[in-house]
Amino acid sequence: MNDEDKMKREHGGAQGEPSRPTRRQFLKGLTTGTVAIGALSQSGCSPAIPPLKTAGATDTTTICPFCGVGCGQVVSSRAGRVIHIEGDPGHPISEGTLCSKGAAGIQVVNNSRRLQKVLYRKPNGAAWEEKSWDWAFERIAARVKETRDKTFKATVDGRVVNRTEAIACLGGSALDNEEAYLLAKLMRALGLVYLEHQARL
Fold first, then answer.
1. pLDDT of residue 45
2. pTM over 0.70
């Protein structure tokens, strides 16, 4: 290739022809433009990184209630309301990780379907009635005592058993380990033998 051909290639061919960029020049221009647009968007009026939704919130460490693994959680609250739950990176068991249930734990707290009041339906009734917590506690205690007194067995075949088989207790996944422990102690003190727990509801 002689000098004249090189000049034609560099300057767009024959005289009068519009110059066409080489592939290298095109890629250079594309890269420069992309970087420039990115820099302008970063320095614009709106921030590139949105503000944290937990800014100004109070963080409290706790244990996930859903199973016996005991993963750590950080609960962020503001004005008495839970606004976010995430894994605790400083927890020795989970190191900040949570399963799908633990990560969605905030739905247990902030849920429009969560019952806030006691609802009572009479035997053979069709309608639910709102009752106070004091009424519910007293009625539960009275029914437990009545049933236990009627069915309590001190001995069976000459052996001391001190039990009732008419009451059962089923724990649930919303109980943490300490609550489940206290519940089991109370039920055994009452003489229950049918004691179960389902942590994966």
1. 54
2. no
